[in-house]
Amino acid sequence: MSKMKQTILITGGSSGIGLAIAKKFIENNYNVVVTGRNLDKLEKVKYDLPSIHIEQSDVCNEDDVKKLVLKMEQNFGGIDILFNNAGIMNLIDAGSEDNQLNKQFTEIEINFHAPIRMLHYFLPQLKKSKNAVVVNVSSGLAYVPFAQAPTYSGTKAALHFWTMGIRPQLKPHNIKVVELLPPVVDTPIFDGIDVKEDDNLKPMPPEKLANLFWKDFINGREEIAPGLSKQLKLMSRLAPKFIFKQLNKQPIPSKRT
Ligand SMILES: NC(=O)c1ccc[n+]([C@@H]2O[C@H](COP(=O)([O-])OP(=O)(O)OC[C@H]3O[C@@H](n4cnc5c(N)ncnc54)[C@H](OP(=O)(O)O)[C@@H]3O)[C@@H](O)[C@H]2O)c1
């Protein structure tokens, strides 16, 4: 396979933000590989987008990740962009004894441990690339926590800080580190969450987010915080208590995920 064409690996690209971003990179002539756990979802994506490459792979499964590294080497001569996107969000009431401890630990594993694992195993391939980039998808909630999803908010704040920390470390290896902090986006992750009724938190279509990301990405921006996320960043500095209260008028979820 020729290295003239750049290769991007997007974890969790079978729906939502990952899929919209995948389409953007396909339009721009990249080899695009998307992963996910559910093969039916991936096969549906492949049916709709024949040029995409799909791999069933769980970011939490060490063996899956090692196999993926080998496949990327064999099929594409390695990857150029690692797009850490896979994520889940649980609505949790920490004040209830029935607070789904194992689900919260899985959430931490997918949202925070997995990007660290992915970078660890893909580092040799990224070091070989002339245009290496790691993109971590955190959230506007890395700036201001959403109380209904406290563990989720914690994972995204952790990812945000990890991203800032690895950026200067990877620079000498010519690996650029970019963070995408999406606002509320209309994807399956937000199905059934009450904030959809709040006008200030109106979800953005994933295609719009992908367009905004692309514009900033090609301009070399390192921290991409579209729409509401930009406001959350500003307000978290100017009036942190006020913005926390605004976002958390209903701190206890009416139902759990
Ligand atoms: N939507 C929003 O409002 C919003 C806002 C801020 C940040 N984000 C972040 O954006 C990212 C994408 O979320 P989304 O909104 O696009 O949600 P989504 O449509 O539910 O997409 C999540 C993707 O991750 C995959 N996934 C989940 N667990 C995985 C695992 N263990 N291994 C591999 N793939 C896995 C899912 O496929 P399978 O289930 O088949 O594995 C799916 O393809 C997440 O990191 C999320 O936290 C979303």
Describe what this molecule looks like in 3D.
It is a single chain. With 257 residues, this protein is of the alpha/beta class. The chain has one domain: NAD(P)-binding Rossmann-like Domain (Rossmann fold, 3-Layer(aba) Sandwich). Helix content is 46%, strand content 12%. The chain is built from 8 helices and 7 strands; from the N terminus they run βαβαβαβαβαβαβαα. It has a 7-stranded parallel sheet with strand order 3-2-1-4-5-6-7, with helices on both faces. β1, α1 and β2 form a beta-alpha-beta unit. The longest helix has 28 residues. It is globular, with a radius of gyration of 18 Å. NADP nicotinamide-adenine-dinucleotide phosphate binds next to α1 and β2.
CATH classification, class level:
Alpha Beta
Bound molecules: NADP nicotinamide-adenine-dinucleotide phosphate
Summed up, the domain count is: 1
Which regions are unreliable across 5 or more consecutive residues at pLDDT < 50? none
Brief overview:
The model has no long low-confidence stretch (mean pLDDT 95). The protein is 46% helix and 12% strand.
Task: List descriptors.
257 residues, alpha/beta, Rossmann fold, seven-stranded parallel sheet, 8 helices, binds NADP nicotinamide-adenine-dinucleotide phosphate
